[in-house]
Design a protein that fits this description.
The protein is α+β, with helices and mostly antiparallel strands and 152 residues long. It has three helices and six strands, in the order H-E-E-E-E-H-E-E-H. A hairpin with a 2-residue loop joins strand 5 and strand 6.
């Protein structure tokens, strides 16, 4: 009994440092957001919130597949392309990605976010990550980059 108690006390006293969602050997991170209750014009082929960003961690290239509209009340359709972030933008994105924690709290809502991490050993997809600390900041940064560079 004394041994078990010592083991438990030692385990509790150990300084637990949280690990990140994205390991050091990751090559690509794909962020997908879908959902929302926003109405969309007739003839739309996607919903207003349906976007996928893929960040190549080696080259810094960011590709996108987003639902958008040309103007006003025209139907939504997917647009594909690639962004060329500045060095500062890329450093910000990499910092936000590196800070994503592995703790994924349970939550629900009208959004369904997913992050796929690709590494040499394979890929792992984490679903329903919209409540992960820092995930919204990452999506906001990608959205801002798309708004700035996506139509260029």
């Amino acid at each position: 009994m004394r041994f078990s108690l010592l083991f438990v006390l030692a385990a509790c006293a150990t300084d637990h440092v949280g690990t990140n969602l994205v390991p050091d050997d990751a090559t690509r991170v794909v962020i997908h957001r879908q959902g929302g209750f926003a109405p969309h014009p007739e003839g739309s082929t996607c919903t207003a919130i349906d976007e996928t960003y893929s960040v190549d961690l080696a080259s810094g290239a960011v590709t996108y597949h987003v639902c958008s509209t040309a103007a006003g009340n025209s139907p939504y359709a997917f647009a594909d392309g690639q962004l060329a972030p500045t060095t500062a933008d890329l450093a910000n994105l990499r910092g936000l990605i590196a800070a994503l924690p592995t703790l994924i709290p349970a939550c629900s809502g009208d959004l369904d976010d997913a992050i796929t991490v690709v590494s040499p050993s394979g890929s792992t997809t984490y679903d329903r990550v919209q409540c992960v600390a820092g995930e919204s900041s990452l999506v906001d940064a990608l959205d801002a980059l798309f708004a700035q560079l996506g139509s260029a």
